[in-house]
Specification:
The protein is built from 16 helices and twelve strands. The protein is α/β, with parallel strands linked by helices. Helix 4 runs antiparallel to helix 5 and helix 6 packs antiparallel against helix 15.
Length: 461
């Protein structure tokens, strides 16, 4: 874990640029004394004091100073906030004066990092601050706030506590090798592991939904050549991001565009048309398209209305997705129908009839007339918002990976129990699983991971 230094740090806590209010934040030993070199009035704890900020007797601005003595502050250290007008020139002058008084400029996320290291919040809560700041919708902000308030952490900690109690039982069996199987059976270790794995499956699903809501979902536009994938991407993005021609195979590589639709972040990925090709460059693009299908959160399966009208599909409902897949060259085993949003393009030519099963997952659009495009964007947003709100908290990819690793380790422990491999091996897998859970909330977190997490934060946070 990263060690906490005793430097006095300072930074602008408000966004760059001009504004009505600008806040400079200090944290560390001597924060009050450094601040009072600019602010003549004596500061009392947790009270707002109005006065003049000045350097060497020269007035800079007037505003408010607040002092929060540690440990009752955000970072757990002495913290001072100087709130004045949002002039970048004035803020830089104040920062320079504070640095002359012994402070240094804070690194990105260092205030939150100190709060974490001082036990004021765990790692999930610290990350939730960044997610709350970056939230692009009310739903994302609500989920991030829930994580900041400890909803996700509580779930992880509860699992860790149950795992710890089970570890105690397994460790006890090691001390009695002649009775180890009986001790494990009496402690119901197998049942406990199975229950933990079941609860982990639920939490992994919730965390994945929370990740989609906070970080946005990836939508892969997939289909045969010339069905209009690039045109749809351009229409949703509101710009000519992709080259569009009537020549099949124009798109050779992945094109990723970040858009915001109804306040929700989406990453649209245009892919090469799926078909058999002897062109080595196009083959590379097709292979990347197939890989993107496995990575995307949602597949926008684009089919031309012209193709459906010319090639009627008469299949059972269970085989309908396979029929759609065969039209576009997608491996039907690679994704499930639940991951797919069917997009029937070029309906200005004519609108084909679909199996009723697809009514709720099909959009009929025409890039030429603009019909259905707004509905398509809303459908993609709705899918994301509904899934994310079901989670009740925000999450990140590293959380999901840690939960999955914990589940895999417990699965290995269960296998060891069933194979009578001995309590030592079971205990080792349970220990690793427990440590992995601890990494989520920051109980056991390497320095390099902490650096990566907090480096993405705002400077003043």
């Amino acid at each position: 874990m990263s060690s906490l230094d005793n430097d006095l740090i300072c930074a602008v806590a408000t966004p760059p640029g001009e504004g009505g209010v600008g806040i400079v934040r200090l944290s560390g030993p001597g924060a009050k004394e450094a601040a009072q070199r600019l602010f003549a009035k004596e500061l009392s704890p947790r009270s707002a004091h109005y006065g003049m900020f000045s350097v060497s007797g020269e007035p800079l601005d007037d505003g408010i100073a607040l002092w929060f003595p540690g440990p009752n502050s955000f970072t757990g250290e002495d913290v001072v906030e100087l709130q004045g007008h949002g002039s970048p020139v004035v803020q830089q002058a104040i920062l320079q004066a504070l640095c002359d008084a012994g402070a240094r400029l804070a690194r990105p996320g260092e205030f939150s990092e100190r709060a974490f290291l001082n036990g004021k919040l765990d790692l999930v809560q610290a990350e939730a601050i960044a997610d709350l700041i970056a939230a692009k919708s009310r739903s994302a902000a609500k989920a991030a706030l829930s994580s900041f308030q400890g909803v996700f952490s509580t779930k992880v900690t509860a699992l860790a506590d149950r795992l710890l109690r089970m570890r105690i039982e397994v460790e006890a069996a090691i001390d009695f090798p002649d009775e180890d199987i009986e001790i494990l059976e009496q402690a119901k270790v197998a049942e406990t592991i199975a229950a933990l794995i079941g609860d982990l499956n639920v939490l992994i699903d919730q965390a994945e939904q929370g990740r989609r809501l906070s970080q946005g979902i990836t939508v892969a536009l997939v289909g045969a050549p010339n069905v209009g994938k690039s045109s749809i991407l351009n229409a949703l993005a509101g710009e000519e991001a992709a080259i569009v021609t009537e020549i099949p195979g124009t798109t050779r590589d992945l094109l990723k565009v970040d858009v915001v639709i109804e306040g929700q972040p989406l990453r649209l990925v245009d892919t090469a048309g799926l078909r058999d090709s002897d062109d080595p460059v196009e083959q590379i693009g097709i292979e990347r398209a197939r890989e993107q299908i496995g990575q995307a959160d949602t597949i926008a399966l684009v089919v031309s209305a012209e193709t459906l009208l010319a090639t009627p599909i008469e299949l059972d409902v269970d085989d309908y997705w396979r029929g759609m897949a065969r039209l576009t060259g997608v491996d039907p085993e690679q994704v499930s129908a639940q991951d797919i949003q069917l997009v029937v393009n070029k309906v200005d030519i004519g609108q084909p009839a679909l199996d009723p099963t697809w009514n709720d997952r099909a959009c009929f659009v025409s890039v030429v007339s603009g019909a259905g495009l707004k509905e398509l964007g809303a459908r993609l947003v709705q899918n994301q918002t509904t899934a994310g709100e079901a989670a009740g908290f925000s999450a990140r990819q590293r959380h999901i990976q840690a939960l999955q690793k914990t589940k895999d380790l417990l699965g290995r422990a269960a296998h060891g129990y069933n194979q009578r491999m001995g309590p030592e091996l079971i205990a080792e897998d349970c220990l690793l699983a427990h440590q992995t859970l601890g990494e989520i909330v920051g109980q056991l977190t390497p320095d390099d991971l902490l650096g990566e997490i907090f480096s993405s934060f705002c400077i003043g946070k």
